[in-house]
Each structure stands twice: as structure tokens, then as C-alpha cells.
Write a structure and sequence with these properties.
By secondary structure, the chain is mainly α. The protein has two domains: 2-141, no CATH class; 144-345, Hypothetical protein af1432, CATH 1.10.3210.10. The chain is 62% helix and 0% strand. The protein has helices spanning 8-12, 18-23, 27-40, 47-51, 65-85, 92-98, 106-117, 120-125, 128-137, 144-159, 168-182, 187-199, 209-212, 220-227, 229-237, 243-250, 272-287, 298-308, 315-323, 325-355. Helix 11 packs antiparallel against helix 12 and helix 11 packs across helix 17. The chain is elongated, with a radius of gyration of 23 Å. The two termini are 19 Å apart. The structure holds fe (ii) ion (3 copies). One fe (ii) ion (FE2) is lined by residues 5-6, 22, 29, 53-54, 78.
Length: 366
């Protein structure tokens, strides 16, 4: 849960301004984090702790005990981390701990001071904590089915940053599966296509929302940044998911004639599952709303697809899509409606909760 405590900041794009969002306006990302954990993850029972992770210990009295404990622990760890970032300006951590009556649980502060004596800071700085955390988490590694839920959670957290991309992954997955079934791929391959399509844009987490949400054509420089999402995807998933699933994900912008990116691969190097996800990605992008365009009507989508067919995209797959366009789009409709409904529900609840915070940002109840 601590790993995800600031996941809401990916929505509000505050993640790059950590010191700011962690000290000034703490509510936006706390509310998003709460809603995200509550509705989109297997971690619902921790959602309330995320909501209160910036609330001083003294303000947590009404909470049930374990939630209060989690919120208080994350709050302390979070403050100390920020102070450590500012440490070069003076002894920030010591002054944080000694001038913070009511902010933290005293027992936690004592435990932290003990950690200090064991020199926890260098351990954090040299990255040694990662290995230790992994060792510690080894016993909690999720089962396969649960791992998939976590995977989806990461993927959706990215789509949920932007109203325009919210349905893109869901569309791409269901288009790709529809096409793959038509071409007689077996269950094992369907599973790989499912995961490859699910992960294909996960690297967009590294792209600033100002580019993801840019209303209009991207400049050359912005486009270059945007294109790095594929290598970012590779960096995130390579070695974690099986190689063939990774390659499905990271080849969705490659083209048969070598004009794609990032590697400029050609037809002989692109497998059927990779070709399917490439077409599904484009059809999803053309037929949906994006920050730079309204959804294209069927005719325009199919004209563009026809122009790319053969030279850039697999002609058989393109022919199947254009001959069965309505049926394929109808089959993706249900998933799309579900995700949009979820997104709008979260946005509405966000507004409701925000309106209950008073002008000083104090909570008036969840
Ligand atoms: Fe936070
Ligand atoms: Fe992409
Ligand atoms: Fe995509």
C-alpha cells in the first residue's frame, strides 16, 4: 500500500513536483488515490488510509485502528522523505520531528529515531532498501490471478490520467482479441495478445500530461518525447513479463515497410500477434476521441486504414476489419461503456468529496 500511496498524483500530474504537492495542496492526489484504490484495485480495504495519508495523527482519532495506523505511518514516512530531500538546506528531519506535536504518533517517531541510529538514511540513498523490501515482500507475492489485477491497476492508473485515453487500452485489447479469434489463434496466443495489448502503452506513465493531453498537433520535439513511450514500456516490463508478450507490447508502432518506430523493423520480423495489436491500436486511436481530435467516423477510419494497408499494416487484418467494422465496434462497446462509466463515477465522487473540504482544506468527513 505504501508503494501506491501517491498514485493519485499521476492523475493530477503533480508527481514531478513532489515537494510541492506533498506540502501545499495535499488533497487532490489524496482523494484520487483513495478513489483509485477503492474502485480500480484489489486494495480497497486500504483506500481510506490513502485518503488520510496527509492528515496529522491528532486528526485521525475517529478512524478505525488499523486504518489510523496505516495512515499515520505513511504520513510520517512521507514527511521524513520530503525532509530528506531538503536536507542539504539544513537539519530538516530533526526539526520536523522535534517541532511536530500532534502531527505524528509518538511511538512511530521513537521507532524512527531507533532506525536513525542504525543509519537508515544512507540505506535509502544507496538503494539497498529496494532489495530488502523485495526480500520482505517475498512472502506476500500475489497469486497469478491477483497479479493480473495489480497489472490492470497500473495500466488503468495511466489511462485514468487523461479523459482522452481512458478507453484506449480497453478498446485496443478488445479489438485485438476480436481479430485474433477470427484468425484462428489458439488460447495461449489469445492470452499473450491480451497481456501485450493491455501493456502496450504502459510507458506513457513517463510522458507528461501536458503532452498526453495536448490539444492539437504535437511539435517535432513533443512528438519525439511522445514516441519514447515505447522504450519506456520496454524498460518497465522487460524481464518481468515473458519475452513474447513484451515484444507484442513494444512493437505496436512498427510498420511492415520499416517506417515505424522505435526500431524500424520490417514485415519478416513482425509476427501475427504483433501485427494484430498494431492494427487494433490504430483502429482504436482513429475511432475514439483523443486530445487532438474527435472520433473519426467509420468512413474516414476505413479510408486511413486502407491507405496504410499492405505497405504498413497487414492487409488481411485490415480487410477483415473493414469488412466487419460495425460488428467489431459493437463488440467493443460494452467494455468501453463500462470504463467510461467508472471514470465518470470517479470524477463525480471526486467533485463531491472536494466540495466537502473547507477553505483550509480541512476534511468535513469522507
Ligand atoms: Fe502524498
Ligand atoms: Fe503507443
Ligand atoms: Fe496505443
Amino acid at each position: 500500500m505504501s508503494i501506491f500511496h501517491d498514485i493519485g498524483a499521476y492523475k493530477t500530474d503533480e508527481i514531478d513536483r513532489m515537494v510541492e504537492f506533498e506540502t501545499h495542496d495535499v488533497w487532490n492526489h489524496s482523494i484520487y488515490g483513495y478513489l483509485f484504490l477503492k474502485y480500480m484495485t484489489p486494495l480497497e480495504k486500504y483506500a481510506r488510509a490513502i485518503f488520510y495519508h496527509h492528515t496529522p495523527w491528532a486528526g485521525l482519532e475517529e478512524l478505525e485502528e488499523d486504518c489510523r495506523g496505516y495512515a499515520g505511518l505513511i504520513h510520517l514516512a512521507d514527511r521524513v522523505d520530503i525532509a530528506a530531500h531538503l536536507e542539504q538546506d539544513g537539519p530538516q528531519i530533526e526539526s520536523l520531528l522535534s517541532n511536530s506535536r500532534g502531527a505524528f504518533n509518538e511511538g512511530y517517531v521513537k521507532a524512527l529515531r531507533r532506525c536513525y541510529r542504525q543509519k537508515i538514511l544512507p540505506f535509502l540513498e544507496n538503494g539497498g532498501y529496494r532489495e530488502a523490501n523485495l526480500r520482505r515482500c517475498g512472502g506476500f507475492m500475489p497469486e497469478a490471478a491477483e497479479a493480473l489485477e495489480y497489472l490492470k491497476m497500473i495500466v488503468y492508473s495511466i489511462d485514468f490520467r487523461s479523459e482522452h485515453t481512458v478507453t484506449h487500452t480497453v478498446n485496443t485489447v478488445s479489438l485485438a482479441l476480436n481479430i485474433a479469434r477470427r484468425f484462428g489463434l489458439d488460447e495461449g496466443e489469445l492470452e499473450k495478445i491480451y497481456l501485450g495489448a493491455l501493456l502496450h502503452d504502459v510507458g506513457k506513465i513517463a510522458i507528461p500530461a501536458s503532452i498526453l493531453e495536448h490539444p492539437g498537433k504535437l511539435s517535432g520535439e513533443q512528438m519525439a518525447v511522445m514516441r519514447t513511450h515505447v522504450e519506456e514500456t520496454r524498460a518497465l516490463i522487460q524481464g518481468i513479463v515473458p519475452e513474447d508478450i513484451c515484444e507484442i507490447a513494444v512493437r505496436h508502432h512498427e510498420k511492415l515497410d520499416g517506417s515505424g518506430y522505435p526500431r524500424g523493423l520490417t514485415g519478416e520480423e513482425l509476427t501475427m500477434p504483433q501485427r494484430i495489436v498494431a492494427v487494433a491500436d490504430i483502429v482504436s486511436a482513429l475511432s475514439s476521441r483523443r486530445s487532438y481530435k474527435e472520433p473519426f467516423p467509420k468512413e474516414k477510419t476505413l479510408t486511413i486504414l486502407a491507405q496504410m494497408s499492405a505497405a504498413q499494416l497487414d492487409p488481411q487484418i485490415c480487410a477483415y476489419v473493414s469488412e466487419n467494422y460495425d460488428a467489431i465496434m459493437n463488440s467493443t462497446e460494452e467494455g468501453r461503456r463500462r470504463v467510461i462509466g467508472q471514470y465518470q463515477g470517479i470524477m463525480q465522487e471526486f467533485q463531491e468529496i472536494s466540495s466537502r473540504l473547507d477553505s483550509r482544506g480541512e476534511r468535513k468527513g469522507l
